[in-house]
Specification:
The chain has 297 residues and is an alpha/beta fold. The chain has one domain: Rossmann fold. The chain has 14 helices and eight strands. Helix 9 links the parallel strand 7 and strand 8. The chain is globular.
């Protein structure tokens, strides 16, 4: 199969626009379910939007996407409709709290990395429209170390691994970092500890993971802090609302706001065509994906 970049050079989607600051593309992943990853993405997106950022959230859990359910939204269409040629990105995007824009998952559809070159071009052309309309693109990946999760994580500019203080979550987070390091050569990830009881508990999780990854994987783990558990967070989930919107003074809301501020201050990414185009080209051109074999064990 030809690499997408080769086709793009001769396609109508080739970027001839002048260089500009790229948007920030962040993949949020977790080693296991139940750590609140999707809730983190939703609240981080809302917190960023509240600070004036134009935020798109891509629900990339193609089998069990539930971002819309978490926020009480009912999308009429999904990415599946775009791939079938029935709808455009503009048709399927739905508005969320604080003005965030959400791309609903295409549940039950084959992994994006197994699409034909024609489907890749079609999707690339549609998604590229986001480039001039967003400051942040948050990718809510599926849980675990599936091929799709690894592909999205390594194609993004930043990888955030969400972990909880539970021993099983810590072990699975290490397994994910190990796969990203050994199979893809990733040597830096960012760690967010969710549902920690105290800041000390969150930092203890970070130290445990950081020490073992540096010793056995030679991977740098940047600490993003912890999202502290409070009773208002599950109350917001029950109401299908973002806690930062419903209870802005909650402890967890304050942590999400802090995290949004921290991310906004990261240095701008320095990639050639550091944009949505670059992201999709990198996603589709990963050798294991193009060959149709699993990227992860």
């Amino acid at each position: 199969m030809k690499h997408l970049s080769t086709v793009l050079e001769r396609s109508e989607f080739a970027d001839a626009s002048p260089a500009r600051d790229p948007i920030r593309i962040i993949a949020v992943a977790s080693g296991k379910g139940g750590v609140g990853k999707t809730n983190v993405v939703a609240n981080l997106g809302v917190a960023l939007a509240q600070q004036g950022k134009r935020v798109f959230v891509f629900d990339a859990d193609l089998g069990l996407g539930n971002m819309d359910i978490l926020l009480g939204l009912v999308p009429r269409y999904s990415l599946h409709d775009v791939l079938k040629g029935h709808k455009t990105i503009d048709d399927i995007v739905i508005s969320g709290p604080a003005g965030i824009r959400i791309l609903p998952a295409a549940s039950g559809v084959a992994a994006l990395t197994t699409l034909t070159i024609e489907q890749q071009l079609q999707l690339h052309g549609e998604i590229e429209k986001l480039d001039s309309h967003a400051d942040m693109l948050l990718i809510d990946t599926s849980t675990g170390i599936s091929p799709n999760t690894c592909s999205f994580a390594t194609a993004a500019q930043e990888i955030v691994v969400v972990v909880s203080p539970e021993p099983t979550s810590i072990a699975d987070a290490y397994a994910m970092i190990k796969v990203l390091s050994n199979d893809y050569g990733e040597k830096r990830v960012r760690l967010l500890v969710n549902m920690a009881r105290t800041a000390l508990d969150a930092h203890a999780v970070y130290r445990k993971l950081s020490l073992v990854t540096q010793k056995f994987l030679n991977v740098s783990v940047d600490y993003l802090g912890g999202i502290l558990y409070d009773d208002l967070l599950p109350a917001a989930v029950h109401r299908q609302r973002a806690v930062v919107e419903m209870y802005p003074r909650a402890v967890s809301s304050q942590e999400f706001t802090r995290l949004a501020t921290q991310i906004s201050q990261w240095p701008r990414p320095d990639h050639p065509k550091g944009s949505v185009q670059f992201f999709w080209q990198r996603l589709f051109e990963q050798p294991v994906a193009a060959a149709g074999v699993p990227a992860c064990p």
